[in-house]
Specification:
Helix content is about 45%, strand content about 15%. By secondary structure, the chain is an alpha/beta fold.
């Protein structure tokens, strides 16, 4: 049983701004993130966060302001374009294949969005995906997260629930980056902190 983070582990960098740039363009994406940082700062100073922490609030604001009203078909087309542009981290991709070749179940647990992750993982032997799920209404994204932001403590909770439901396993492995994946890695027998240079 092997769990892999995605951003900063299987790929270099963060897939979310890359995906949003495919939807609305790079310039508007940069402006949206800068504006979200300002808005999140004001919200936290007033004690009105939208997420579990500052980064979660920034993410919630960005998603609402950039993806609300986007047709699902447009988002899926953007995901297909993004799949051609990713910079994969070779050693981790090889490790994923090695676990699968050894007959182990492979799970990707990521804060990235369920809207685009299936397209990005299509060529990898992944058995299960845990991602941040976006709300869809009438074929359009609402910009709202519906399952909780699948990062840090929430990701660890989902991994723990998955292990309880599908286990026990004789041995578990985990790969993630520091510090955001520490809670998940602490649950596993063979944790590995990945630092991409």
């Amino acid at each position: 049983m092997a769990f892999f983070d995605f951003d900063g582990t299987l790929i270099r960098g963060d897939s979310l701004p890359l995906f949003i740039a495919e939807v609305i363009g790079r310039h508007r994406t940069r402006l949206a993130f800068a504006d979200a940082l300002r808005s999140a700062t004001h919200r936290h100073l007033r004690g009105r966060p939208l997420g579990a922490d500052f980064r979660g609030t920034v993410k919630a604001i960005v998603l609402k302001r950039t993806l609300r009203g986007v047709p699902l078909a447009v988002a899926e087309a953007a995901a297909e374009r993004l799949a051609q542009r990713l910079r994969w981290h070779g050693p981790m991709v090889e490790a994923l294949h090695a676990h699968r070749d050894a007959g182990r179940t492979v799970v990707v647990a990521t804060g990235a969005l369920n809207v685009y992750m299936p397209a990005l993982l299509r060529h990898l032997p992944v058995d299960h995906l845990m991602a941040t799920e976006m709300e869809v209404a009438d074929g359009h994204l609402t910009g709202r997260i519906v399952s909780g932001n699948c990062v840090r403590g929430h990701k660890a909770d989902r991994v723990q629930a998955w292990l309880a439901q599908h286990g026990p396993f004789p041995r578990t492995w985990g790969y993630g980056n520091h510090p955001s994946d520490r809670p998940m890695l602490a649950l596993l027998d063979e944790p590995a902190v990945i630092r991409i240079r």
